[in-house]
Structure formats: C-alpha cells, structure tokens
Amino acid sequence: MSGMDHSMPGMDHSMPGMKMLWNWDTSTVLIFDWWRTDGPVTLLLSCMAVFAMAYGSEWFQSYRAQRDRVLLQRAAAVGGPAVAVDHEATDLLADQDADLHAAGGRNVAGSRLHVARVDTSHGRYYQALRAVLRAVESFIGLFIMLLFMSFNGYIIFSVVAGTAAGFFVHQRGQAGKSSLACH
Predict the structure, then answer these.
(1) Of 100, 117, 134, which marks where a domain is finished?
(2) 156 and 96 both lie in a single domain
(3) Transmembrane stretches, by residue range (predicted)?
(4) DSSP code for 171
(5) In sequence order, what are the beta bridge partners of 37?
(6) For residue range 71-82, what is the model confidence (pLDDT) as tens digits?
(7) C-alpha distances in angstroms, 66 versus 71, 117, 131, 154, 165?
(8) Which pTM was predicted?
(9) Per-residue pLDDT averaged across 41-57, rounded?
(10) In terms of residue numbers, what domain contains 42?
C-alpha cells in the first residue's frame, strides 16, 4: 500500500495556511481565507494592522470604563431601588443600604462605595448600553485572541507590542482587571 495519496481532493497544498505550531513564516493565513500574507511586505502590513487592533483594544477598554462610570451616574440620578456602585472597578454590587452602612461604606477590598438609585425603566436602558459596550469589548478581545492563535511569532509580537503601547497611553492611573483577558 505504499504510494497512497493522502491528500484531500480540491486542496492546494502550495498555499499558506494556519499552522498549529509556533512559527516565523512570512506566508500565513490570519482568521479569514482572504487575509493572507505571501511575503515580508504583506506580513509587515498585517503586523501593523494587528498592532493597531491591540492598541485600539486598550483604548476601547479605557473608553468603556469611562462610559460605564457615566452611565452608572446617570442611572443613579433617575432614582429607584438601591444598589452599591464600586467606582474603582465599576461593578454593581447587590448590597442593601443597611449592609453598606454597617460596613462603614467600604467593601472587602477597601474601595469607596456609593449608593446609587436605579429606576427600572431608565436603569434597564443604561444597563443595556453598558451591555452593548461590554459585548463590543469582548468581541475585540476574542478576535485578538484568534490572531494570537495563528502561532506566528510576528503576529504574536504585534499583539503584545500593541497591547503594551495601548496600555501605556490609555490606562494611566487606572487600576482594574488585566487587559490580557480576552473577555
């Protein structure tokens, strides 16, 4: 049985594809069949695009955190049932007014809490806006993760460099979750 052809019909083996091992190839496919690099020039252009996406991801995370605070403040201004808002992490905490007062206005991590009132109709609107921004942030992170999974060293370096540059510029003075988490 030697000499058997194990290739699949219709497959062109001369074209680059996604590799599942670490590589430094200049010819590769990134996520979509149409996003191919066939040499150093197209690889450089793709690396620049990946760098820009990773940098933009850091900007968007900073933007979403700022918008999140504004949306929580607007929701608090319309009144409604009390929820505790951690302004440093921008997470809604399900504490009651009495529990918050008993804790001296501080959560376990010691960050300042503010009691906000959220109206059911306006509160849902603001929560929906927050959810849309979070969905976009998750999509961007997962898309960048797929680029990282090309296992191409040049692309991986572009992701890391873009993330570092974006973090340096847009995440100054902000504590919070790591931006390397894809979602």
Answers:
(1) 117
(2) no
(3) 41-60
(4) -
(5) 28
(6) 888 877 775 444
(7) 9, 19, 14, 32, 19
(8) 0.66
(9) 98
(10) 26-75+119-183
Structure tokens at 179: 């931006």
Residue 25 contacts residue 134 (beta carbons within 8 Å)? no
Please give the structure tokens belonging to residue 76. 């608090």
- Residue 55 to residue 165: CA distance in whole angstroms: 6
Q: How far apart are CA 159 and CA 109, in angstroms?
A: 32
Q: Which two tokens stand for residue 51?
A: 């760098």
Determine the Cα–Cα distance for residues 98 and 115; give it in Å rounded to an integer. Answer: 11
Asked, for residue 10, whether it belongs to a domain, the answer is no
Instruction: List the structure tokens of 65.
Output: 């955190």
Same domain for 175 and 126, yes or no, is yes
Determine how β-strand 36-38 pairs with β-strand 27-29. antiparallel
Q: How many residues does the chain have?
A: 183
| Structure-model confidence comparison of residues 182 and 47, the more confident one | 47
